[in-house]
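Need a sequence for this fold. Nothing fancy.
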């Protein structure tokens, strides 16, 4: 074979794998188990919904999707572990608006969200509910605000850690209501929940998906929910906006990201399968009862959603001077 022909043939052999590798990556993926790292404690919304998504992906893609809880440092420990994982689709991050808040609240962390990760899919969002221990004298939000202003620094509120939606909902409430309430962070949402039920903290914001049953059981008193409209699972509870703090709006949302460099074919395949899972009639029915609403987005749409949320919470962090 002439020299130039051999060179042309060799170039073709090298080029073919490059040309077909995205298709092969999508076709063959996954060929083994996939880790879904949840950088939060067990029992909270991120953990609960991660397991539902993992089960749906395991069934549709015929490989185990295994949830691994790696809580700590306001989600930074588990998230950093994913950032350092190979970008091959076999390690995924279950994330929330904790991550978009941390971009401005903790700028010196070892990763940057939009630099070191690629958006895969949104999952859902749900309202928060502001609850107080039954021993708190305030029967409604206006009474609570009046007492907090009369006794600045005397009341406290719990969260599942710095930068979590529960923490930021509390800081947004303080800023917009002009109150001074002490933040008491906990290691996980379960500890926060136990603290307010047990009276160790007076108030907390928690997801309606996990706190509604405690409200109905009388273990806590619901003063308000956090979205602009009333919650479908707590319709008799007013919103924070209508009960005394106009314009207040805070929710908890969840999504999936992967290490930057993950092949687009794999990202697109995961996006399609996650969207199929969260729009199944049985999933919608179950989430309706819990107060969760599916978020179906393309990776590009989720990217835009993340960037907008980063800007929103950066403004709150600046206004409250919270950055570390």
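Here you go.
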């Amino acid at each position: 074979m002439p020299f130039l022909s051999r060179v042309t043939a060799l170039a073709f052999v090298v080029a073919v794998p490059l040309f077909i590798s995205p298709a092969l990556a999508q076709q063959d993926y996954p060929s083994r188990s996939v880790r879904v790292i949840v950088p939060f404690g067990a029992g909270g919304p991120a953990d609960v919904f991660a397991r539902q998504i993992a089960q749906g992906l395991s069934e549709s893609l015929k490989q185990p999707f295994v949830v691994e809880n790696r809580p700590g440092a306001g989600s930074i420990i588990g998230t950093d572990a994913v950032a350092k994982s190979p970008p091959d689709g076999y390690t995924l991050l279950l994330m929330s608006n904790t991550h978009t808040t941390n971009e401005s609240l903790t700028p010196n962390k070892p990763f940057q969200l939009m630099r070191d990760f690629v958006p895969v899919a949104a999952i859902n969002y749900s309202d928060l509910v502001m609850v107080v221990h039954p021993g708190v004298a305030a029967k409604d939000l206006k009474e609570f605000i009046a007492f907090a202003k009369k006794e600045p620094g005397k009341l406290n509120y719990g969260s599942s850690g710095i930068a979590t939606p529960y923490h930021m909902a509390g800081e947004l409430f303080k800023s917009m209501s002009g109150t001074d309430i002490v933040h008491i962070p906990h290691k996980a949402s379960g500890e926060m929940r136990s603290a307010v039920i047990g009276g160790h903290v007076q108030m907390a914001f928690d997801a309606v998906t996990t706190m509604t049953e405690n409200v109905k059981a009388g273990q806590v008193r619901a003063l308000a929910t956090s979205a602009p409209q009333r919650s479908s699972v707590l319709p008799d509870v007013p919103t924070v906006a209508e009960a005394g703090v106009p314009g207040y709006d805070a929710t908890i949302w969840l999504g999936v990201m992967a290490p930057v460099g993950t092949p687009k074919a794999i990202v697109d395949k995961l996006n399609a399968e996650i969207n199929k899972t969260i729009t199944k009639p049985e999933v919608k029915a179950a989430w309706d009862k819990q107060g969760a609403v599916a978020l179906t987005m393309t990776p590009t749409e989720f990217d835009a959603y993340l960037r907008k949320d980063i800007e929103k919470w950066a403004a709150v962090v600046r206004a409250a001077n919270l950055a570390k």
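For context: The longest helix spans residues 3-28.
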